[in-house]
Design goal:
The complex is a heterodimer.
Chain A: E1 9-13, E2 18-22, H1 26-32, H2 36-45, E3 52-56, E4 70-75, E5 82-87, H3 91-96, E6 102-106, E7 113-118, E8 121-126, H4 135-146, E9 152-155, H5 158-161, E10 170-171, H6 182-188, E11 191-197, E12 201-202, H7 207-223, H8 232-238, H9 245-248, E13 252-256, E14 266-270, E15 287-290, H10 293-301, H11 306-319, H12 323-332, H13 338-344, H14 371-384, H15 388-393, H16 399-410, H17 416-427
Parallel strand pairs in A: 1-6, 7-11
Antiparallel strand pairs in A: 1-2, 3-4, 3-6, 4-5, 7-8, 9-10, 9-11, 13-14, 14-15
Chain B: E1 3-5, H1 15-25, E2 28-29, E3 35-41, E4 46-52, E5 56-61, E6 64-69, H2 84-88, H3 104-108, E7 114-116
Classes of the chains: A alpha+beta, B alpha+beta.
């Protein structure tokens, strides 16, 4: 695969410590396009070896608006089904530029390890100081060790280490869209984290034409109905969920975007600092980046003040726990205040009730979307590598345009028939 | 004439950095961009934008604009930003002089945080 790709699949066997590399063949892309199309194919190929697959979308890391997404595919310990969870913020892009398009992680290590993925190199490393650290401390540790604060870290906390069904693979310090218990899978593999740094280069088959199409898509999005959305509360409202704006506004420091995503879908709240502060704070850990709408809705429903809800979610992220599942289980257990919920975090047990019924993490399934439309749109976003929340509210990125631009960028003839087949295979429809 | 950056509007999406990299390499890459949001203080959510110009390194910070003349000694008491060194090695902004409709960072900024000064 010459264009929009690093042309490499890394295959890691944690049991034997063997690392293999394969080319990403054009034929595979022509048949499966990319993203979940290919991660599912790789999962099926290595299914007997309990694999966790990381993969990039065909357009991830490009100038196509919303091109932030990579994906984790594995058998969910929560649902027992092969499932997919999104990797957004800057982590999806970083994987694309790391020199690998896909990573297959199979087997289990005999002692704790981490993966270091960078510059087309894949290492299995031991670090006696990592296991036992919370997600934040582990991220700080690995960035300090490598001397690079831009390393993207997919890591687990204590919940993952004890293979809890509530465990989540976090992104750096923040919650991810992993609603599938994949954090527990890494724990079982004794894989504490995957550190990723991307400094590669992606060639484009027809650069000028591709970039002009990207500019056209961005222009359409900026003229579209969702153009004014700023932050997680506005995003919830746009998806038809209850309004969170008044609740969160007093804490809001700044709205932040995932990589090349036109709408800032995340909101940073200051909990231990004045949210209006414009200069650099002297507080080391002043707040939390809100990346997930569902737990906010659930905790608000419990009657919690926004600051308490955000503190709970920060604690969940440090422990590597799915905040939405924690909120739901807390409600079932009758826990209604911050102290009670935080006190119960180490004893809350799943199964996480929020895993949903489709192959996709229901991270973006909020509000009043039509299920069939949601499923199709998620599949398309996960194939091409688009932020799935953004994809839901940006109808300007039509399937036809995505196929067209992907064909221009790769010089491969990608058709709507192929897309239909891949979507049908992924969704089982 | 140069670029003007409204860092309070910036959402740190990196579209400007990617567009600039494309201008340099005719491919997608981030290492050669002369503009970049810096993301190194993630836990503090402290975001700025750095721009390499011919004679200076411009840091658009929430506190205001900081212009460091290249080659002049900086305040030794001040903590160096981890992103500054690789920026100094990059080509200076040429305002995409070969692009008909202006700098690509402006064109691809989704929130209109970059404009011509």
């Amino acid at each position: 695969m010459e264009y929009l790709a690093s042309n490499k699949i890394g295959i890691v066997d944690l049991t034997t410590r063997e690392i293999l590399e394969e080319e990403l063949e054009d034929d595979l892309v022509l048949e499966k396009i990319g993203g979940v199309g290919i991660t599912r194919s790789l999962y099926d190929r290595f299914a007997d070896e309990d694999p966790v697959i990381l993969g990039t979308g065909l357009l991830t890391g490009s100038l196509v608006p919303g091109s932030a997404l990579s994906v984790i595919t594995a058998k969910s310990p929560v649902t027992g089904r092969v499932s997919h969870a999104p990797l957004t913020l800057d982590a999806g892009m970083e994987l694309k530029y790391s020199g690998f398009d896909y990573l297959v992680i199979k087997g289990a290590a005999v002692k704790p390890v981490y993966l270091w993925v960078h510059d087309g190199i894949l290492d299995i490393n031991e670090d006696n100081d990592l296991w036992g650290k919370d997600v934040w401390a582990a991220t700080d540790h690995i960035r300090s060790l490598m001397g690079d604060d831009l390393i993207q870290v997919l890591g687990i906390g204590e919940a993952g280490e004890r293979a809890s069904d509530l465990a989540q693979i976090c992104i750096n310090y923040w919650q991810s869209g992993d609603r599938m218990g994949f954090g527990g899978l890494l724990g079982k593999k004794q894989l504490k984290l995957i550190a990723i740094r991307g400094m590669g280069l992606l060639e484009i088959a027809e650069p000028e034409e591709f970039v002009e199409h990207c500019a056209g898509l961005l222009s359409a999005v900026k003229s579209g109905g969702a153009a004014k959305i700023r932050g997680i509360a506005a995003m919830a409202a746009a998806l038809g969920a209850p309004d969170l704006d008044d609740w969160l506004k007093p804490l809001t420091h700044k709205h932040m975007a995932c990589f090349n995503t036109p709408l800032p879908t995340n909101t940073f709240v200051f909990l231990d600092e004045d949210p209006a502060l414009l200069k650099e704070t002297t507080v080391a850990e002043p707040g939390f980046l809100l990346t997930d709408i569902s737990p906010l809705l659930k905790l608000k429903r419990l009657g919690l003040p926004a600051a308490d809800a955000c503190r709970i979610l920060r604690e969940c992220a440090k422990r590597g726990m799915d905040g939405a599942a924690v909120a739901e289980l807390s409600e079932k257990a009758g826990l209604k205040d911050m102290g009670a919920i935080q006190g119960a975090l180490s004893t809350l047990k799943g199964p996480a009730p929020t895993a949903g019924e489709t192959a996709f993490s229901p991270w973006a399934a909020i509000g009043n979307q039509d299920p069939a439309t949601w499923l199709r749109r998620q599949a398309v976003a996960y194939i091409f590598g688009l932020d799935p929340v953004f994809a839901l509210i940006a109808p300007e990125l039509t399937e036809e345009k995505l196929l067209d631009i992907a064909s221009i960028g790769t010089e491969l003839e990608l058709t709507s028939e192929t897309l239909d087949e891949v979507v049908a295979h992924i969704t089982g429809s | 004439m140069g670029l003007k950056i409204d860092v309070l509007t910036c959402t740190a999406c990196m579209a400007c950095e990617l567009a600039c990299g494309y201008h340099r390499d005719d491919a997608f890459a981030l290492l050669s961009s002369c503009i970049m949001p810096y993301r190194a203080k993630e836990k503090k959510n402290y975001v700025g934008v750095m721009l390499k110009e011919e004679d200076s390194l411009v840091a658009a910070r929430p506190e205001g604009l900081e212009i460091n003349r290249i080659g002049e000694q900086q305040d030794p008491e001040k903590e160096a930003d981890a992103s500054a060194k690789p920026m100094l090695l990059r080509e200076a902004c040429d305002l995409c002089e070969d692009v008909d409709d202006g700098p690509l960072c402006i064109k691809f900024c989704p929130v209109n945080a970059i404009s011509m000064d």
